[in-house]
Amino acid sequence: MSVPHYQYLIPAQPEVGQDDFERAARILKRRAGILLGDHKREMAARTLSMRGKRLHLASISEYLQFLEQNQASDEWDHFINAFTINHTAFFREQHHFEILSDFVRTRKTPFHVWCSAASTGEEPYTIAMTLQESMPSASTQASIWATDIDTQALERARRGVYSLERVKTVPEPYLKKYFHRGKDAKAGLARVKPILHDMIRFEQLNLLAPVWPAEQKFDVIFCRNTMIYFDKQAQTRILERFAATMKKGGLLFAGHSENFTYLTKVFQLRGQTVYTLAP
After folding, report:
1. Does residue 10 register a pLDDT over 80?
2. Could you give the CA distance from residue 185 to residue 208 in angstroms, rounded to a whole number?
3. Residue 232 burial class via C-beta count within 10 angstroms: exposed 0-12, middle 13-18, buried 19 and up
4. What interhelical angle do 18-32 and 60-69 show, nearest 10?
5. Closest to 242 (Cα-Cα) out of 197, 208, 269
6. Which residue in 57, 150, 155, 168 has the most C-beta neighbors within 10 A?
7. Partners of 276 in the beta sheet?
8. Nearest to 179 by CA among 171, 169, 190, 168
9. In whole angstroms, what is the distance from residue 21 CA to residue 23 CA?
10. Of 82 and 10, which is predicted with more confidence?
11. Structure confidence at residue 194 (pLDDT)
12. 224: nearest Cα among 274, 171, 169, 165
């Protein structure tokens, strides 16, 4: 007996035309300062097609038109979130936190830190642990302003709940001291304790916004692996604005592949991807 042959149809991948791709890139850069390289064309096609379907729009072109005609729409958050990358980890680039630990001991209180690309929270919580271990009164004398453009990532950060896999890079003594391990239905999860959470103010912020609602000047700013999303003009403008928000002798921590020395004279290199305000 012959076996019937069935042909399974594989849905075609959505495509974005050159005009729509360039239009999307212009919109993203204008709204968030993020550069959309041509290597992200397929990802852009999937993202724009999916968001358009959620709004019952017939094409990517109609979706982009919707954004341009509805500048106050909540859809802008979804659009921007889709093009941000939340690659982060606890104690990523360990040497930065060793430098922070030594630095905080030389500064007057209160001590203020801005984590300008907080993502899903691993970085600001690592900063909080470092300050708790380095300052006798961190809970009352230190604060962390944690911002990000991605609203979904910030919601995860505010919850402060992570899989045990995600907290593997946290030293075991810190894990016991600063996290609650989940039980029963929460098994396999860990939640940050209030001693860390209460030090941090999470807030959505576009670094290209005309006003930064900072409540004070900062001893330290973390801006790691973020500048790669912006062109050189925007990078320079952000760095010079950072300088204006920092206390004398403050430190700026950059990503492992970032070099700011050729962009502006307001910062000078102090060590491996660590900058200080120029005199």
Report:
1. no
2. 42
3. exposed
4. 30
5. 208
6. 150
7. 251, 268
8. 190
9. 5
10. 82
11. 97
12. 274
What does the pLDDT read at residue 250?
Answer: 96
User: Which tokens in the block code for residue 214?
Assistant: 């900072």
The tens digit of pLDDT for each residue in 225-277 reads 888 888 899 999 999 999 999 999 999 999 887 888 888 999 999 988 999 99
Position 171, amino acid? P
Cα 53 to chain centroid distance, Å, stands at 27
Cis check for the bond before 173: say yes or no (omega within 30 of 0).
Answer: no
Instruction: For the chain, give the secondary structure using H, E and C.
Output: CCCCCCCCCCCCCCCCCHHHHHHHHHHHHHHHCCCCCHHHHHHHHHHHHHHHHHCCCCCHHHHHHHHHHCCCCCHHHHHHHCCCCCCCCCCCCHHHHHHHHHHHCCCCCCEEEEECCCCCCHHHHHHHHHHHHHCCCHHHHEEEEEEECCHHHHHHHHHCEEECCHHHHCCHHHHHHHEEECCHHHCCEEEECHHHHCCEEEEECCCCCCCCCCCCCEEEEEECCCHHHCCHHHHHHHHHHHHHCEEEEEEEEECCCCCCCCCCCCEEEEECCEEEECC
3-state secondary structure 19-55: HHHHHHHHHHHHHHCCCCCHHHHHHHHHHHHHHHHHC
- Mean pLDDT over 182-189 rounds to 90
Q: Hey, what are 151's tokens?
A: 């609203």
Tokens representing 146 are 């944690």
Provide the 10 A C-beta neighbour count for residue 270: 14
Q: What average pLDDT score do residues 138-156 get?
A: 95
